[in-house]
Fold this sequence. Notes:
By secondary structure, the chain is an alpha/beta fold. The chain has 12 helices and 13 strands. Helix 5 (112-122) links the parallel strand 4 and strand 5 (126-128). Helix 3 runs parallel beside helix 4 (92-101). The mean pLDDT is 89.
Amino acid sequence: xxxxxxxxxxxxxxxxxxxxxxxxxxxxxxxxxxxxxxxxxxxxxxxxxxxxxxxxxxxxxxxxxxxxxxxxxxxxxxxxxxxxxxxxxxxxxxxxxxxxxxxxxxxxxxxxxxxxxxxxxxxxxxxxxxxxxxxxxxxxxxxxxxxxxxxxxxxxxxxxxxxxxxxxxxxxxxxxxxxxxxxxxxxxxxxxxxxxxxxxxxxxxxxxxxxxxxxxxxxxxxxxxxxxxxxxxxxxxxxxxxxxxxxxxxxxxxxxxxxxxxxxxxxxxxxxxxxxxxxxxxxxxxxxxxxxxxxxxxxxxxxxxxxxxxxxxxxxxxxxxxxxx
Length: 325
């Protein structure tokens, strides 16, 4: 089986036992190269494309999916991202997604809402599979009631000004009786907005820098994590928060609330952007609710096993139906 991308926490989590990945862990995937596909298409039973990892050119994806068909290589597609944030519909990603969905043997996605959207927009029935666990709570690490965390600096199209997002989050944290911690990955610190530094120097918020490898631990220490996510089908950060027991404030667009009942939404749409007043209110509301417990590991392990079994069944089905050229 050839997964695209070759390695990723989600791809690793859903890989069934006994399935061998074919190819190299380089980006862009060599399987997108038509010459490589022509030379090595016979080496794989299935190509599994995870849509939502980078931009895809519609014309190139149409040529690529047709090349797979000519060689009789079955294509499985998991839809992680449906909309181009901040753009109207249809957009360039809609066309590229339509190109691959038109030839996919099986389509998967991660929430019922996303499956409904795929059926409406593309005429394809998608199998809904849960996002499996990708983190484990550290039993030695505590969390602080009332502590709100917001990461800034990471790529996001949610608001034009990080300072506006921070001010809204700060207002929500204080009105809810809590405090705000702004999280900045060490590599992104030089580009930090000066207004945020000034607020930290004035003692109005806590500014914490962290190594990328400690992101899960940073989330576990919070009562509420504010996730300024892109509008899409799912969020890996929501799943990490579920695993470690941190309540989530996330956009109303997409289907984040489909993932987990502990998500408190704030108003955001792809055309109008974030309603900062709504964000402030959502944080205040989230702080009135108790901190959730970390996910039950027996349940999460069983869920992951079930998701892997779905993938194993899909691969076996499409490989068995393969039309060898």
